[in-house]
Amino acid sequence: MEFLNLAAVREPERLVELRHRVRAFLADEISSGRITPHSDQWLAGWDPGFSRRLAEQGWIGMAFPAKYGGSAQGALARFVVTEELLAAGAPVAAHWIADRQSGQALLSFGSEEQRQAFLPVIARGECYFAIGMSEPDTGSDLASVRTRGARVDGGWKVSGTKIWTSGAHHAHAMIALIRTEPLGEKRHAGLTQVIVELPDPSVEVRPIKLLTGEHHFNEVVFHDTFVPDSRVLGEPGAGWKQVTSELAFERSGPERILSTFPLLVEALRESNRIGENVDRVRLGELISRLWALRQMSLAVAGRLEQGDDPAVAAAMVKDLGTTLEGDLIDSVRMMVGIEPDPAALSRLPRMLAEALLHSPGFTLRGGTNEILRGVVAKAVNVS
Amino acid sequence: MSEIIEALTEAVEDACVRHPSSADTNWNAALWSALDQIGITLLSIDEEEGGSGGDVSAAAAVLEVLGEYCAEVPFVETALQGAWLLASCRAEIPAGPMTAAVAGSGVTLAEESGAWTIDGELTRVPWARIAEHLVVLAGRHVVLLGRNDFEIEAGTNVAGEPRDRVTMRRVSLPASSVHSVPEDSDVTEELFVARGAVGRMAMSSGASRRALRMSLAYASERTQFGRPLGAFQSVQHQIARMAGEVMLCKTVSKFSAMALDEKEPSWQFEVAAAQVSTGEAAGTVAKIAHQVHGAIGFTEEHDLRLCTTRIWSWRDEFGGARRRAEEVGARALDAGAAGLWPLLAGK
Prior knowledge:
Chain A is of the alpha+beta class.
């Protein structure tokens, strides 16, 4: 059970100055009215202008080497920046996937030409990615994907359907997991990651509206879409290994803890008015748990910084963190005692409604909590 | 983990295996001697003050092992509290196990023409009945009492560990037993309690780990419906939840020890938030461990209770989870909307 031993990490002094610069930048963005804080902005806050302004500060692609337009500052520096963005409720959805994992995948598995083609534009905040994993009959059981790549001259002809693809209607590219060999004994063999550039006349992108009516999800249908060999990511057939190596990045970050944090900030603003009636003990329990999970997430980032792959620890952080994102909403409800109102003119009832209506997604996306617990159970060897 | 700490924890683990704590006694003298021989009973106290060297983090690493083995020794009280108070006054540290307490309103320390007396009562003093010395922080004085200076009424926590009532009846003290806390020292009642709390957190994370290990073992041995319990997905998920909470306890308790070593301006908030969150997490671990074990874990015939009853005791000692939660809540309200995030981020 070595994976339970995470070294506690204190943020290095060199990053405090960075943290304060990001915070000042965001305060200015908010006070000038260019952005407005909301919950769950890494799904819902699509704002290319903001992404470009962030990139001008050098805060996208921070983990990329300089020759690809990044600043090679490592996982902890990226942690500090993303955390400040989420805590402030800034609209980061446009560049989020590209910065968090597609860029990382390109760095790990991409060809030199692919890196040159995508990483500098990602770092400029101008190129956005979508994730093509889930399918209509493939959710948690990812190895059962049926989107097929047939070998053709110079590449692959892709047909099939991806679903729940956030941002595919705006994205410039999607990394899709497809089956390039028939399903055999080994379920995890024969899967390949391909980069599909968008928009493409053979790729149909259909909106699937969230229960709020917002359009973030899509169904993406490949009608014999041609993907040249130069857009295969990594090795054909190595898709499963590549996909699972992204998971520690995908699962342990601050976005698995802080999606509803802006709601708590707003509730505290309101609590100045309700004052003495706030239950300090309950608030203290919530804040302590939030603080503790943040320390865990930071400790995982410390391991990533050292080049480790703490996939199991990341799964645990995500299980606990996403559960807390939902619990926070209930704590706020009991603290402020108001009705959620999506059309309210005042911010708190509107933000409460937003958080509530987005909450089912927290424990589903990026691997359901049940899948995560399966990963952990396997690691502790219970059977 | 540094190599020194790794070697240290291995030695302590070895000692714990050689001298297991049993439920029938409440003081493991043989283990204490072994720890003394390793030379670590005064960890976190500088060697020039007569201590074993090392810092609070090193002591916490040892305490995690002691907690895992439910070791019945007053390590927190001796190293992190009693010896710390004495060393802070540059007073000599006596040999043997110690306990320590804050005087509170029920105790009077008085001086009359150079003669000192201490009088009054202390409640729920850990390990008082086996301690060779009791160190009392009374205002800005540190008082050292010998075993014969006080009377004891035995009490326990829910794990059966000694939490005794101590009565001091106008005890005359030689001047050599009363020390002023130097102006430049960091000794405060608050820090005394925090050092105790950090020690208990480390022990709790060890006890949580033990509860997880026992649950894993039990789930693989116990068969129902023709399958081991661990083959049932509902049980697997419960154990996975436990593992997450154990990791929280371990990571956060280590951080809280580091917070005392570094003493950043945020240390009070950090220790308080750590105490609340580890208390909650360890409580969840205990709850699930019992659920996995079924009825046998709920009996005297099974050792699960050794770690779960300790978890239930330790989380509410040294300030206790409720008071800490209130403190954290009040700090958050003071910080307000603009200050909440900097409070959480520590910067």
